[in-house]
Amino acid sequence: MSGAVCLLVYSLVVLVLAPPVLTGSTGSGRNPGLGLIAWISAIGSVLVSWVAAATFVIVDIGRDLLAGEHLSLSRCFTQLHDAAIGVHGGAVQVGLLVLIAFGVVAVGVLASRLGTALARARSATHRHANAARIIGRPHDRYDAVVIDHPEPAAYSVAGNPNTIVLTQGIVAALDDEHLEAVMAHERAHLTGRHYLLLAVTRALAAVLPRIDLFVTGAAQVARLVEMSADDAAASLHGPKIVREALLALAGTRTPISFGAPEVGLADRVFRLSAPYPAARPMSATVSALTTAAVFAGPMVATLAAAAGFGVCAF
Questions:
Q1: Which residues contact 110 (CB under 8 A, 6 or more apart)?
Q2: 240 and 275 share one domain
Q3: Distance from C-alpha of 259 to C-alpha of 225, rounded to nearest angstrom
Q4: Which of 76, 138, 258, 259 could bridge 154 with an S-S bond, Cβ 3.0-4.6 Å?
């Protein structure tokens, strides 16, 4: 039981401190890959700690129910243990078991909603990819589907197979050099499996909308995957070409950039505007320390949680 308490305390610390700390550490987008690792590590560690804590509680209570008085729990859970085995009367025992049952049901409902949200997202993207291939036409140079729509847009859709969709508007707005950069951006989304990160984080934010770590994390992950794809395109075609493509689309009648429209276009352009990749609003030393902290933060937190097990054991 003490292990479960340590895990829950650890998850509380991450839930409270991770959103402001990680937002500040990854806000500049200096290294979006490490930023993604930091956010996913924080979110994943909270989910794992919840599952592990629930498992410890269920196993300990089940073991003591079977063993009766022969096994004992830590002092802080003696009363809970006694209630579970009926020392305080049948009514208290039944009430505790009902409370546990409701907790299990609540976890099951959350897991079911999360699974349903992920399944719906997967089904929707597959239908979208199939529809785009049906109504669109293959591009004569790129492995992409072109649909007749005047507004400029480009996006990738996970499916079987994965599909990159271009509108006629973006084909007409960009020359070959800039369109190649757009294609490199979208390929980076597919090869990096960014759609999986977005699906999971958005599903968590939808299922648990009052938990800031999940809501803020979903928005930051969406922002960082766009910056990561920008970097992949810039490594092949140069930051100038990628920046010009973004600015060209921003100057169209309806400014729709390639990538997710809800992420900050100004931030993406700013990152690509200075000498690449060194131009960032911080010194090299501060940048290195910040990057190290973002990468090592979840690891340090996990070690702290492990130390907590030892403290609670005494």
A1: 207, 208
A2: yes
A3: 9
A4: 258
Same domain? 140 vs 264: yes
Residues 286 and 206 in one domain: no
What b/e sequence results for 224-257 when a residue is b if at least 16 CB atoms lie within 10 Å of its CB, and e otherwise?
bbbbbbbbbbbeebebebbbbbbebbeebeeebb
Its domain, for residue 245, covers 136-281
- Please give the Cα distance from 267 to 274 (Å, whole number): 12
Let me know whether 269 and 307 are in one domain. no
Is 298 found in the same domain as 245? no
* 182 and 266, same domain (yes or no): yes
Tokens of 181: 């950069």
Q: Residue 160's closest CA among 187, 197, 186, 123?
A: 123
Q: Are 313 and 216 in the same domain?
A: no
The tens digit of pLDDT for each residue in 233-277 reads 999 999 999 998 888 777 654 444 465 544 577 788 888 886 544
Between these two residues, 278 and 56, which has the higher pLDDT value? 56
Residue 114 domain flag: no
* Rounded-to-10 torsion of CA 98, 100, 103, 105: -60
As a whole number of angstroms, the distance between CA 181 and CA 165 comes to: 14
Amino acid sitting at position 196: L
The domain total for the chain is 2
Residue 291 CB partners (closer than 8 Å, separation 6+)? 30, 31, 34
